[in-house]
User: What shape does this take?
Amino acid sequence: MKPVPHTTSLRRAPVQRRSAERLTRILDACADLLDEVGYDALSTRAVALRAGVPIGSVYRFFGNKRAMADALAQRNLERYTERVTERLKETGAEGWRAAMDAVLDEYLAMKRTAPGFSLVDFGNQIPIGSGHAEPNRRVADRLTDLLSGYLVREPDEDLRRTFLIAVETADALVHLAFRVAPEGDEKVIGETREMLRAYLARVLD
Assistant: This one.
């Protein structure tokens, strides 16, 4: 079992393995219920029942469902980073275009298959977390740190701004693709890929 990242939305971080496993079950149940009933109908009691834990166990970690969804969003980002890292190991030295494809493809894969991701993703879809958290900036900073070594580029302010613009653009267009078609409209996704390549080529070529 992969450890659950210690997030700022947790009231108390798990210390023992049993506690970490319980937290994982809670977040898994939260993700499944988000797909089934949506955020508005989500409740901490329903999560506890689905996870098979006492309601007090949920409140031990989270003050409310907003904090629970925020923790799920942060776990999504950790898992996304792991997936991109594995893809980059596979691509080797194929250049930044292969890296960009890995970043976009893994996001699309999670959008299509990860429970609860279509409603929460990294915190953009529903009003979770603090207002200044800016999930897309969090994603862009994570990708800058991850890709700068791969690209042999300094993760300076210019590169961070470039990736932030790319992430904001991709986020808007991918959500458009999934509004057009349940699995993501391939034509919109193709145009998104071409737009990102054209923009990033100015900086990365």
User: Anything to note?
Assistant: Residues 108 and 174 are 8 Å apart (CA to CA). The first helix runs from residue 17 to 37. The two ends are 40 Å apart (CA to CA).
